[in-house]
Amino acid sequence: MISALAGTAVVSGLAPAAVGGFASVVMLTPVNAQAEDPAARRRFVGQFGYAFTPALLASRSGDEVEFSNDEEVIHNVHVVDRATGETVFNVTTLQGIPYAHTFDEAGVYDVSCNVHPQMSAIVVVDAARFMTVADQEGRFSLKNVPGGTYTVRVWNPDPTRRSERRVEVVEPEIRLELTS
To answer: Does the pTM of the predicted model rise above 0.85?
Structure first.
């Protein structure tokens, strides 16, 4: 079998299923810095149909998240740091005028629209080298993971379903069961 140490691997598996409509976030952080961190990215959250899309966003620390109102209705974006309860920002969003914010601090951020209280989203920010949002059943896949030792963490809305452990990426395909 080919060792992933000579290339990259696909790490996939099953994390805890969604709770309250919000799925799990799976994060891999190298134990030793095997690879250079990728450049910051721009992520997007839209407001359409009186909903935030996506309702759960996984973002790396330093990524810019652009919030856009994609309909003719006035909305706002109210972001609160879940750990402190403090408002990070609260801006009105008009159609065609996006608002961008760089999340420098790791954490979980609750997003709401004060105009339409049924609208909510969550932004999970972490410094993990690789991260993805699992599907509603908990299935996930991370591609192009270099070989090495990683800490795998699972964030789930239910704190009892969160976990952390180490994994060795030494094969081209690694399957993880992260539900227990």
So the answer is: yes
